[in-house]
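Case study.
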Amino acid sequence: MSRLVAIQAEGLSKQYRIGANQAHFGYKTLRDTLIDMASAPLRRATRLLRGEAGAASDLRATVWALKDVSFEIEQGEVVGIIGRNGAGKSTLLKILSRITEPTEGCARVCGRVGSLLEVGTGFHPELTGRENIYLNGAILGMHKAEIEQKFDEIVAFAEVTRFLDTPVKFYSSGMYVRLAFAVAAHLEPEILLVDEVLAVGDAAFQKKCLGKMGDVAKSGRTVFFVSHNMGAINNLCSHAIWLDAGRVRMTGAPESVVAAYLSEGAEAGGERRWRADEAPGNDRACLRAVRVRDSEGTVNATLDIRKPFYIEIEYEALKRLTNTRIFFELMTQDGTIVFTSVDTNSAWGEAPREPGIYVSRCEIPGNFLNETRYNINVASDVPFVEFVFWQNNVLSFQVEQTGGISARFSDKWAGVICPQLSWEIERIT
Amino acid sequence: MAQPAVENPTSPLTLIRPTRGWVNLGLYDLWQYRELLYFLTWRDIKVRYKQTVIGAAWAIIQPFFTMIVFSLFFGRLAEIPSDGLPYPAFAFAALVPWQFFANALTQSSNSLVDNANLIRKVYFPRLVIPMSSVIAGGVDFALAFLTLLALMLFYGIAPTANIVWLPLLLLLALVTALGVGLWLSAMNVQFRDVRYTIPFITQFWMFATPIAYPSSLLEEPWRTLYGLNPMVGVVEGFRWALLGVDTAPGPVVLVSALAAVLLLLGGAFYFRRMERTFADVV
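After joint prediction, the assembly is written out as follows.
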């Protein structure tokens, strides 16, 4: 049997105008400005009638949100799209769902497409839950008969039976999202495009959504799925596309694409250096650099939850250091300090350091931190005497889910850390 | 060895590629989405008077009080002729379709901007949006029309047999409103200036339409030419069909219908041409 193709994209590109007039750097006289002011409305009106886009803004400043994107997706594949913010993921979905046109290239889409770029698109606050199910269903492309047939199922999934005839403006945000997702989840197109909708709701609801996504994936439909949740990509997808600055960087099995994407985090930082003249410190020592290295030893700000990594503090001893500690505090984004660790917990211990450049390296074990973003503060002091330096938020790094212990349940566990602890089970009766 | 991939012949094939210049109206696509048109119209009707105290009575109050003001100033003080009819009935028969037109024009012109979230997130033929906001005005029209019948009863005026033409005259008002609405809504996406010109346009247009005065003030052939404003045909048609004004408006209505159809076609093509950038600039 030959393979059936669902989507075939060839050289898809999308150019956006970014409005600001960046081409003008030179000096502009008042006369130029006045002439511009006088002629611009006329020029704009002409453009408007010719149907040119962006007539209200300057035409020169443009950016390619997507450039030469080609791929071929077979029917029944679940495709994960990954990439940083602004890499073009949402633009690609918008083109495939025909919300916007590509500037160049073409795509052949075989089958009815349903897109889910946002939950609750078109919900009207004044209408009741019942009315919104019909309205939202129709907006997503369902037929009336189809909505009627699935109505009870949708209501049951959303758990809003009691409030069916209440205007949704009185719903709690949780109920609202549940209802919105329930309608969307019962959309049954041949090709489903989903953008990061799972980033809403509480943990329990996210789990339910991922479960539903898994069902959809298994039902043989073609799914396009944008997510920052690498665990979900690994678990649900059969194919991954990595977009970088509008281009396809890599495609293939999700495991390998995700791994390559994470190791790329190096570019996004993972190191902070100070020049000699601005280095924090005093006459004892000064801070030269702070780095995060992954398990391979590469400087990287995106880390695999399963693997150990290293925090390195590089400093220069300006004179013989005694009783001087180097330490860091690890914090979550909301400022909660997860722990503090001091370099005297090393073989070197409290032995004095002769003048020179040193690196203090701390290993953070794998399967220990949770899937989130952390910041570090770095400091040095002579206990009870003075601080040598104290720098807040010198670096931040992201721990990514890749299928660690919590990934089996397809959602993020609550907690600042997510350690792998040993359990024993004993039968006592 | 992997087989070459082929397209499934049973699934609909969509070709996504950049379009240039003028494009077709996409009427088949529009037909496919007729249920959405129904639901959006239904939403606009449902939501229109939510959280107002007197609700749909607003649909009657607006034309009714305008009629009273007109009757006082134009009818009583300025003594403008009214084709031999009581001035209030004469003015109200014109104000009812006019109000429908003015509301439909305003609503449809702002409709794309008001539904920006839909345009950015979901695909459907964009024509559905201004169409639904024009059609939704039909409910207001029906209410005002009943008031008009009551007023005619009060003055003892019986509608003529020509009332059978009324649906077509209403359609003419609808086509005109949609035609203008398509132009303005598509422009409004890029230039919010349009929003501020709409009250001015409707006001200007109102005085360019024989609502406070009869078109019989004009001699032929000027009167027929006057029909280039499609609302002239609508208003004169309403008076002729309901009140039995003896100035047969046949030629005027024909000219108006022609103008309205051209307006609609032009608007629809312009709209389709601009449509491709809606999601990017709205």
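Observations recorded in class. The mean pLDDT of chain B is 88. The first strand of chain B starts at residue 6 and ends at 7. We will return to this complex in the next lecture.
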